[in-house]
Amino acid sequence: DTVPLEMHKVRVVQKLNLPPIEERQKAMAGAGNNTFLLQNRDVFMDMLTDSGVNAMSDRQMAAMMVADDSYAGSATYERFEAKLRDLFGMHWVLPTHQGRACENILSQVLVTPGTIVPMNYHFTTTKAHIVLNGGTVEEICYDRGLEVTSSFPFKGDMDIDKLEGLVATHGPDKIAFVRMEAGTNLIGGQPISIANLQEIRAVCDANGLLLVLDASLLADNLWFNKTREESCRDLTIPEITRKIADLCDVIYFSARKLGCARGGAICIRNEDLFRKMRVLVPLYEGFLTYGGMSVREIEALTVGLEETMDVDMISQGPLFIAYMVDELVKRGVPVITPAGGLGCHVDVMRFLPHVPQSQYPAGALASALFIASGIRGMERGSLSEQRNPDGTEVYSNMELLRLAMPRRVFTLSQVKYAIDRLDWLYQNRELIGGLTFVEEPEILRFFYGRLAPV
Ligand code: F0G
């Protein structure tokens, strides 16, 4: 058995609470069975997300102390811009306050009513911005990407035949841009291959299409390129990064998965496109040399980007996730395989076959797991979808309970605790019933909707 080894030591700690089950039950009821509405003081292991909660390094903390405070033209921003140019080889950079802010700007500039955006798979905020601007999302990952148990190493890849089909049907003018998401979030943090990006690039070149990469989860993806893709085996992480970037026209990312509390950026190859997007930055984000981030955050982000080039750093998430996934598979607990990035994804359709999709099984399991363990996960299934304009439900392809693995935050014994509690819950799964909305927001309802047992 491979056991992951922490390639860091803990120098700052935070005390955790593990409230007794009666209190957990009360807290979950008070939160309307929505883990987003729990108070962190009631949570033992917070596996809601890896966003804004990864551990920072000593070097990131130190960099925050030397930040250059100024509204315009700070040296901190110069360092940030230089780092991005160096990593991605794209000259034009725009800072934003987080990932969805990049999506707002990209969508406002590139999406017009009636256009479509082909992508390997959507992310919640991405789709919301595209739809808000009158566009339609077309998800065209390979069918095997949606198979929950698989040994296919790059389930995030885009089906080239489907892409060519969309171009043939709608014509290139109707395609706002092609979007690839590294470490495809909603299908289980599944990576994309460079070979696939090369094929997509060829289709884009043949049809004059823009290729936009969402690099929010690039750190995990780089690890999978290095370890699963033959052509990358002898390349360094910076070389793989550049190989990916060279195939793209635009790269945007949320910095919240890089050990930062805030931040993001859009890197652009073409100056005209940069100019079109630039006008929106002072409007929504802040001036061009801070974009809604504090200078301290920008310094930490610059170091975070640099540390993402260290194999010992980017291996930590995937190795801990692989351990958790493999141990759960051994116990017969249904999870998405192969293990991806971001976190461990429980396959709820198989975990709770007795709960129909209309009763939000993934939300029900998230609620039950908190009560059984004090672990907070996130529903990633039909609850995270938006209803059709006629009010009918959109049932997601997968009903997942995501247990995110914040990088370098949990010890192996904590991960073992999570495995043990999930195993127990699976043995006692008939205790879990479905949920129904008592309060349903119209947009991104999963964030603050309230539910009750059916
Ligand atoms: N794109 C991807 C692939 C993401 O995973 C996220 C955020 C965003 C864009 C939006 O970035 O939060 O900085 O505005 N994912 C978080 C998560 C929320 O928990 O998976 P943001």
From TrEMBL:
SUPFAM superfamilies linked to this entry: PLP-dependent transferases
InterPro entries assigned: ArAA_b-elim_lyase/Thr_aldolase, Beta-eliminating_lyase, PyrdxlP-dep_Trfase, PyrdxlP-dep_Trfase_major, PyrdxlP-dep_Trfase_small
Start and end residues of each Aromatic amino acid beta-eliminating lyase/threonine aldolase domain: 46-414
Domain of life: Bacteria
Keyword list, A-Z: Lyase, Pyridoxal phosphate
Listed cofactors: pyridoxal 5'-phosphate
GO molecular function: carbon-carbon lyase activity
GO terms, biological process: aromatic amino acid metabolic process
Modified residues (N6-(pyridoxal phosphate)lysine): K257
Family: Belongs to the beta-eliminating lyase family.
Assembly notes: Homotetramer.
Protein name: Tryptophanase
Species name: Cereibacter ovatus
